[in-house]
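Can't attach files on this board, so I'm pasting raw text. These are the components:
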Amino acid sequence: MAENIKKIKTAPVIHVAPSPHLSSMALTTRRMMIDVVIALIPVVLTALYVFRWYAAKQLFICIASCFAAEMIFMKMRSKAFSLNDYSATVTAIILALSLPGTAPWYVGVIASFVAIGIGKVIFGGVGMNIFNPAMVGRAFVMIAFASAMAASGYEDSASAVDAITQATPMDAFKQTGITTSLSALFWGPTNGSLGETSAFACIIGGLYLCMRRTASWEIPTGVIASVVVFAGIANLVNPQSQWTVLHHLLGGSLLFGAFFIATDPVSSPLTPKGKFIFGIGIGAFIMLLRLFSGYPEGVMFAVLLMNALTPLINRWTVPRALGEQ
Amino acid sequence: MVDQPTPLERFVQGILPENPVYRQLLGLCPTLAVTNGMKAAVTMSCAVAFVLLCANVITSLIRNLLKPHLRIVIFTLTIATFVTIADRFLAAYMYQMSKTLGPYIPLIIVNCIIICRCEVCASKQSVLTAASDALGQSIGFALALSSIAAVREILGTGMFFGWRVLPISWPDWVIMVLPPGAFLTFGILLGTVNWIGSYRSEKSGNR
Amino acid sequence: MVKQNKIIEPEATGMLKSKKRGYILQAWLVLTLALCFGASLAGVQLTLGPTIEENKINETRQKVPELVLGAEKAQKIEEQGQALFIEPHTISIEKPGKKISYSVYEARLNEELIGWVLKTAGQGYADKIELLLGLDPQAKTITGLFILEQKETPGLGNKIITEAWRKQFINKDTGRQLIVVKKGTKALNEIDAITGATISSRAVTGLVNTAIGDLKGSLVAKASHNQPTKDE
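---
Top answer:
C-alpha cells for the assembled complex are below.
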C-alpha cells in the first residue's frame, strides 16, 4: 500500500485524452504515425516498382482526397484543420495500398471520403473510431463497386505492366487451382492489391514497426500463429492441396494486414493479452473466409469483425488492480 | 382534461414536427427494407396510409366502447384486417410489386406507427381529427421513405422511378441498393435532420 | 401502507368477481368486430382470390411460348391469334433418399407437341434461384431459359437475368453436361461465366444440368407415349 501511494505521488498529473493512451511523452500520435509512414516506405517502393504508374496514380488520388476530406469534415465540425498528426496520411497510404491498381479514379476518391468521414470523423475524430478507417473505406467500395474490386477487377490483359495482366495468386488458385511459386509470393512480382504482393517488404516494414514499439508484436504474432494452425489443419484434412501453409502465409494481403492494418492502436485492444487474442481472432476469420467463402481473401472483413469485438476483448482482459481478488 | 390538438394541428404535426420516422423513429423496418427504389417506397407508403386511415377511423368510431384492458386486442384486430385487404389487393392488381415487397406488406401489422396513432389520437379524439392525423402521419411517412429511397435509387442505380437521371457512365454504387446502404443513408439523413433542428433551436434561442 | 391495502382490498375482489362474470359481456366488442372483419375479409378473398390465382399461373404460362418457340416465333403466333395449349404436369423423381417433384408444362400448338417447360429451383450465391427451362419435344435441345426469381449481388451475379447471358443456353445439346468456363467458350457444351460471378453462373448451369438429368427420361417417354395416339 505504501508503495502505491508513493507511485501516485510521483505522478500526480493525470492526462485525460482520447486513445491512443500514451505512456511516454516521447510516444506521441505524431511520432507513431511518422513511424508508420517510414515503415511503409519499402512497401510503397515495391508497389511503385511492380505496378509503376498504377501505384503512383492510386497513391496520389488517395492522399489528395483524404486530405480534402479531412479538411472539409474538420471545417464542418468547426475544429482547426491539422494534418500535423499524420493520421490522415497513414490512412490514405494504407487505403491506397489495399486497392487494386486498376481501380478507376472514383473508387479511390469515394473510399477516402468514406474512410475519413464515416470511418473516423463521425465517431469523433482521431482516436475515437471503432473501426480501422482505411478498412471502412475499402469495405464500402468493395461492396459498392463489386465489379471493379472483385478478383476479376484486378486483371487487365491489355495493360503494359506485367503483373496486372495475370490473375491474382489467390484468385488463380481458388478458380483454376494454379499455384504461384513461393519465391514470387515472397518477392512480389505478382498481381494483387498494391501493397500486398511482396511479403518481403511487409516483413521489413513490420519488423521496424515492432522494434520501434509503434506496433505491438503480439498482434502480428497472433495472426500468423493462428493462420499457421488453421492452414495446417486444412492441409491435414486435404493433403493433396497445392496451397500449403507457406502459401497461405505469404499469399494475399495476410502479412500487410497483420503488420499494418491490424496493429492500428486505436481500434485494437489495450492489453498485451487482449492484443494476442485479437490477432488470433483475425487469423481465424481470415482462414474461415479464405476456405469457405466466395471471396478469395478475407483480411479486410476479418479486421473489421475483430475491431467490432475489441471492446469485448478489453472487458475480458482488464488487468487486475494490485490486491484485488 | 388537457386540451387535445385540433384536426389541423394533428395534420401539420404529422408531416414534419412529429415525423414518424425522423422524429419518433417508428416503423423503421419498412424504412430500411423497402427503400431501395422509389416505386417500392411509394407503394409501401400508400399501403401504410390506407391501413392507418382505416384503422384510425374505425378506432375513433368505437372509441367510447373501448375497454382499457381490451383496447390493444381491438387495435390489432382492426389493423390486421386492413393489412390483409391491402395485401390481397396488391397481389391481385400489382402482382410484380407485391412480389418485390414480399413479407413487408403483411409486416405492416406490426408497424408501430399505426398502433401508436390509434393509441395516442384515434382512441381519444373525433373521427375528423383521427382522419386528419392519419393523413398527416402518412404524408410524413411517405416523405421519409421517399427521401431515403431517392438517395438510394439515384446513387445505387443512377435512376429515379426507373427513369435514368444520371449519365449511363455513372458507376452504380451497388452498396446503396443493398441493406448496408439503407443503414448508412438513414443514419446520415437522420443526423442531418437533427443537425438542422439543433441549428434552428440554437438560432431561435439566441433571439 | 397497510391501511391503504385494507381499504382497497374489498373493492378489488368485487371488481374481480364482476370481471369473471362479465368476460363474454366485456368481450362483446371484440367478438362483434372479429365477426364483421372476418366476413369482410371473406368477401375480399372471394372477389380477389381468382385474380390472384390467375396472376400466379400466368406468371409461368406467359413465358411458355417464348421459351419453347423463341421470341420471334412466339410473337408471330400471337399476332396470328393462335394460342398455345398449355397443360401443367407434376413429375416426381425418386432419388436415393429423397423424392423430387417438378412442375412441367406441356406446350401444344394445333394438337401437336412443340415443347416442354420445366420449373426448377436451387441455391445460388445469395439465395434461392428459380428458373424456367424450355426444351424441344424430344428433350434433345434447350430452347430457352428464364430466371423467375433471384437475389444475386446487383451488378455481378444478377447479370444471370440478362438476355445476353441466357441466350448462350439456347440450342445447347442436352446429351452433354454443360460446363462453366472463364473467358471464351470453345466446346459446344461450354457456358461463359459472368465476370466476377462464377458462383451464380455455376449455380444456374448446375440447376439446368440436374433438371435435364432428372427429367429427360420421363419427358421422352411421355412424348413417345403421346405420339402414336396422334398418328392414328
